[in-house]
Specification:
The complex is a heterodimer of chains A (151) and B (260). Helix content of chain A is 32%, strand content 13%. Chain A has helices at 20-27, 83-90, 100-113, 119-125, 136-146, and strands spanning 2-5, 8-11, 46-49, 52-55, 68-70. In chain A, strands 2-1-5-3-4 form a five-stranded mixed β-sheet, with helices on one face. In chain A, helix 2 (83-90) packs across helix 5 (136-146). The longest helix of chain A is centred in the last third of the chain and has 14 residues, at 100-113. The radius of gyration of chain A is 15 Å and the shape is globular. Chain B has 260 residues and is of the alpha+beta class. Chain B has a single domain (4-256), classed as 2-Layer Sandwich (Uridine Diphospho-n-acetylenolpyruvylglucosamine Reductase, domain 3), CATH 3.30.465.10. Helices cover 29% and strands 25% of the residues of chain B. Chain B has helices at residues 11-18, 33-38, 83-88, 93-98, 101-106, 118-123, 141-147, 207-214, 219-224, 240-256; strands at residues 4-6, 24-27, 46-49, 58-61, 64-68, 127-131, 137-140, 152-159, 164-172, 178-188, 191-197, 204-205. In chain B, the strands form three sheets. A five-stranded antiparallel β-sheet of chain B has the order 4-5-8-6-7. A four-stranded antiparallel β-sheet of chain B has the order 9-10-11-12. The longest helix of chain B is centred in the last third of the chain and has 17 residues, at 240-256. Chain B is globular, with a radius of gyration of 18 Å. The chains are: A alpha+beta (151), B alpha+beta (260). Chains A and B meet through strand 4 of A and helix 2 and helix 4 of B. The complex binds flavin-adenine dinucleotide and FE2/S2 (inorganic) cluster (FES) (2 copies). The site of one FE2/S2 (inorganic) cluster has 11 residues of chain A, from loops. One FE2/S2 (inorganic) cluster (FES) is lined by residues 94-100, 131-134 of chain A.
Chain lengths: 151, 260
């Protein structure tokens, strides 16, 4: 099976029932998707599959054979932050950072679909993403700022 | 032990790979099944994955709406009521993008709520087409759920006809707003069908409520009879006592929102 991860093609050895999360972290060493609940309930493992946010812990490799996967490593790095990363950084929307890769990829997908989301739309898009330390106020502010808000 | 994995690329291939179903575990969206496999709660010998089966289409033709089993729940959110309201409350955007209709109908009752689309589909008068032992079969969703047999769901169909729909629900505020109870009501022509989520392990039709309405009872009196139709349980979301207290009010609310 194959995946294109952050623009690079990989031929894979993992079996068809291996969760995409484990393929990324263990076979490919892409560690930004976090293994939180591993049951679909926390959002920490979220990556983009062909542009759509997906829980990688719920996604068997066989179902996404040949897909394009984007993780936060493919969105921006420390020297070249994506505007969403920049907003999370400057507005202190990350403390421990465990939920942050999932929050950011989901935000990138939201802003692509809806460049000027209202607060309800932001809350809806991130409702499956649990943050246990920052709280959600700063996170929602960062999404608003990244969307070009005045803050 | 490694599982054998089958990835059919058409509905016919899926049905033939399923055969009589013995020893086959279906994985559709995987939102329930994959964690069960990952965490060793399930050790399937053969897995039939529906990801490429082509069973993910919604068709509206010949006076009927047909929803393929592998259609994601997200595709229903802007569709017909009362299914749309129930779909909109399944998990979150990302879960809805992956969770399928067939998985929702076939999920065994678990500690988290799972079959929230069953009651609205019963209220819509849905029929299930399935494959398995003895070949293909079409039956009402109530019969399908009652049979508890292991068959491959191919699609569900309901009449594409003018209707009035009502939906009322109680949610448990949590990271995900799990549905404790929901009532789906549909009036088509002179007939009203009512079904409940949270009144038992699967969605349930409410014959007592329907009979009371047909006999001319007020919505309040008809709603009170719902307690004869359900057998709610205690679970992590709510007690059976609470469900019995709240349900008649929700039934009345759903009925009152139907047009004459
Ligand atoms: C965070 C979270 C929140 C959730 N919230 C809700 C909620 O609010 N309401 C709700 O109803 N559910 C909820 N669920 C449960 C689940 O996502 C849904 O019930 C979903 O519709 C299941 O579909 P699936 O395709 O993912 O099923 P799968 O996991 O693929 O399969 C579930 C079961 O059905 C069988 N199956 C699947 N498709 C077929 C078929 N076509 N024929 C025969 N058998 C089949 C499988 O073998 C398995 O036993 C939630 C799950 C998570 C992780
Ligand atoms: S690790 Fe996937 S949702 Fe929690
Ligand atoms: S920053 Fe720690 S969980 Fe969100």
């Amino acid at each position: 099976m194959k995946l294109n991860v952050n623009g690079v093609e990989h031929a894979l050895e993992s079996g068809a029932l291996t969760p995409l999360l484990h393929v990324l972290r263990e076979e490919l060493g892409v560690t930004s998707p976090k293994a939180g609940c591993q049951s679909g309930g926390c959002g920490a493992c979220t990556v983009l599959v062909d542009g759509e946010p997906r829980r990688s812990c719920l996604t068997p490799l066989g179902a996404v054979d040949g897909a394009e996967v984007t993780t936060i490593e493919g969105i921006g790095d420390a020297h070249d932050l994506h505007p969403v990363q920049e907003a999370f950084h400057t507005l202190h929307a990350a403390q421990c950072g465990f939920c942050t890769p999932g929050m950011i990829v989901a935000t990138v997908a939201l802003l692509k679909r809806l460049p000027q989301p209202g607060r309800r739309e932001i809350e809806r898009a991130l409702s499956g993403h649990i943050c246990r330390c920052t709280g959600y106020v700063k996170i929602v502010e960062a999404v608003e700022a990244a969307a070009g808000g005045s803050r | 032990m490694a599982s054998e994995v089958l990835l059919p690329t058409s509905p016919a291939e899926a049905a033939s790979a399923f055969g009589d179903g013995s020893g086959v575990t279906v994985v559709a969206g995987g939102t329930i099944a994959l964690p069960d496999i990952t965490h060793g709660r399930m050790h399937p010998a053969r897995v039939l994955m529906l990801a490429r089966s082509g069973l993910d289409r919604i068709e509206r033709s010949g006076g009927a709406v047909t929803i393929g089993a592998a259609t994601p729940v997200a595709a229903l959110v802007d569709g017909d009521e009362p299914l749309a309201s129930a779909a909109a409350h399944v998990g979150d955007d990302e879960i809805r993008g992956q969770a399928t209709v067939g998985g929702n109908l076939c999920a065994s009752a678990g500690e988290t709520p799972r079959g929230d689309l069953q009651a609205p589909l019963i209220a819509l008068g849905a029929r299930v087409r399935s494959a398995g032992a003895g070949g293909e079969r079409v039956e009402s969703l109530e019969d399908f759920l009652a049979a508890d047999s292991s068959r491959l769901v191919l699609d569900v169909t309901y009449d594409d006809t003018p209707r009035s729909a009502g939906y009322a629900a109680a949610w448990r505020p949590h990271a995900h707003h799990y549905t404790i109870l929901a009532v789906a009501a549909v009036r088509e022509g002179g007939e009203t069908r009512v079904a409940v989520t949270g009144g038992g392990p699967t969605g349930r039709r409410c014959p007592s409520v329907e009979a009371a309405l047909a006999g001319g009872a007020s919505t309040r009196d008809a709603a009170a009879t719902v307690l004869d139709d359900v057998d709610p349980a205690d679970d992590a979301l709510a007690s059976a006592w609470y469900r019995r207290r709240v349900l008649p009010g929700l039934v009345q609310k759903a009925l009152d929102s139907l047009a004459g």
